[in-house]
Amino acid sequence: QLQLVESGGGLVQPGGSLRLSCVGSGFTLDSASIAWFRQAPGKEREAVICIRSGGGTRTYEESVEGRFTISRDNAKNTVSLQMRSLKPDDTGVYYCAVGYGGCRASDRPVSRWDYWGQGTQVTVSS
Question: Residue 54's beta-bridge partner residues?
Fold first, then answer.
């Protein structure tokens, strides 16, 4: 059974950091592009950042530029999202997604991604 499981979410104060993980089971992630999406209350799910199979990255959400870093460990079938200098606007449910499009600019829509995790809640609040 193909499955993605996110972890690492939680409550953090503004300016703090969190590290999210996405682990794949039932399939290998090394040939896929992996993206992190987030969904704030009452808003649509949006693409945040993506990493290609070869390790190149693309940041979709301008507001996280320089604060969020995506990385992958193919040996562990895991993709991580390091988030720093968190802001209240970063609050939401964070999802990892698997696709094979190569993190193109045209891959922003949810419909371009094939497999999804269940999400992990990130709350930035004092």
Answer: none
